[in-house]
Amino acid sequence: MNLRNYIMATAGHVDHGKSSLVKALTGIDPDRLPEEKARGITIDLGFAHLDLQAEAGGEKLTYHVGIVDVPGHEDFVKNMVAGVGSIDLALLVVAADDGWMPQTDEHLQILDYLGVARGVVALSKIDLATDEQQAIREVRNQLANSSLADAPIVPTSIVSGRGLAELKQALTQTLQSTPLPRDFGKPRLSVDRVFILRGIGSVVTGTTTGGRFVRGAEIVVQPSGATGRVRSVQNHNRDVEASSPGTRTALNIPDVQGPALQRGDVITLPHLKHETSDLGVLLKKSGRTPGSQTRISRPIKNRARVRIHLGSTNVAGHIIFLDQSDLNPGESAIARLRLEEKLHAFVGDRFIVRDWSEQTTLAGGTVLDVEPLDDKVKSEAQLGFLRARAAAPDDLETLLHTELQRRWIAPKERLFTLSRFSDTEITAALNKLIDERKLLLRGSSLVFPAFWDDAKKRATQRIRAEHKAHPNRVGLTVAELKTELPEQIRTANLFDDLLAELLSEGFVLVGSSIKQSSHQLTLPPALQSAGANVRSALSTKPFDPPSRKEIAPDAPTQQALRYLLETGEATLLNEDVVLLSTALQKASDEVKRFLHAKRAATASELRQALGTSRRVIIPLLEHLDRAGLTHRDGDKRILR
User: Fold this and answer.
1) Strand pairing partners for 90?
2) Sign (positive/negative) of CA torsion 37, 39, 40, 46?
3) What is the pTM of this model?
4) What is the pLDDT of residues 596-614, one digit of tens each?
5) What residues in the chain have per-residue pLDDT under 50?
6) From residue 572, how far is each of 171, 565, 575, 576, 584 by CA, in Å?
7) What is d(CA 400, CA 402) in angstroms, rounded to the nearest whole number?
């Protein structure tokens, strides 16, 4: 038998019979608090479960539906929102005698904002209706232009039992077209209940989304950061090895206690640890505004203080619109949320905005960014980034492309972890973008092409500028070029990759400098005379020239000497001795000839043969030793 897990929540106005209908369907009373039973209304979340049987393609299916029963009273809407943040379908309940009511409309808007696109409408208390068909038409009209516009409407009565079988059938048919909750390897549980059991320790309950919690797994509690290990896992009072997406889950985590664990926390895995008080978002305000004077009809003003409901959490914050001053009914806007407390969120998460006093649902939104990099709230870069994401909030390639566009460089591994996409999906999308050259792979890092091209352009311009300013020099030192490129390249250890590309595109390394292959060293006119003086000083006594300080006593002659050394016209034997390269070659030939004849000779004998001084002969012979022409044997030199 094929078992499929889903989560369904009730919705609807107070006293329209949501809890009674759940009990009639499941045999479980979701009202668990004494106060709820005393007052006859649901105050907090209640839970039940229902198994529905179906057959598809000759295969028997069981839909295991975890049910979250929510309060309908306007004073407890915040509890209602905490229960519908991770559901797959809704059971909207409308009493046939009362008809459509304010909380019916608010609950429907909340479902709409959260993207709940599948559901069934139960027209409860049908035995009290004066005109059944009219009641159905009125509900259908109210559903128009909502996410449940095409939802089946099933008349029901828990008194007579009418419609209960039909309601189960409608739920089964709806589930047949409902995608299974996604498992993308990133489990989260938004905590809606916390309690302590003697001898057991802390237990949290919630709906598992995005992945599986396995017994024995290490977990982290967000936003507190407390860590622990899952001792046991239960689904509807049954011990299991793991909980999968779409199941009501209880986790026993005895390592975490006290204030570190409360409703609104998120249980997840350590590598998904992240908390933020700054979100980039897309806000939408419904055009459904019953009553022109109601609070829901008013625009949301810039910097309004509101309550943000995400999952089961509820935090205060301010809305900062980036491209407009307020948000009117039927409009959407890009904004930053500056929160007064930290929370855990993924890109793609849906949330609800309510007014500060918790009287009215104002808008819904989608998280576009959980790691803002720009401290300037209203920068053009931030606005452009969020606009691009808002245009395609569910497109992975767009999300990845914009992530690299703003970061320029990022490690390929773990990129975009805080999202509703699996590592496999992300890797496949990245490889496609790399194949299309929309992203570049350099080393183990991803690079945005425009940034990489700009860095190479800056390097090229800097090398050319060096050639123009100092035509007598080989080029720009590699060390200097490295310091003048963007810091991100150095941080990501990509300088060698960029250097390699430059060397494949018309640049060459000469010693510790880089130059254009076409660059020819020349002395500028101002140094021509100094160059002639240096050449003259070196050629007058080619085997015994003056010291370096005597040859280049001032700045012009020093620059000219540097030019001769860099072009190879002269060779530096040590800090004091410089020979013309032609003289060095002649001296080498003479030493070679002399040693061929004598087989071995002292430095003094070779000095006399060349007609030079000890100041020159010692560094000359050491140079020939390094070059592999001669070899020192005691106080004599021999040919290698």
Assistant:
1) 9, 119
2) negative
3) 0.82
4) 998 899 999 999 999 999 9
5) 291-293
6) 90, 7, 7, 8, 10
7) 5
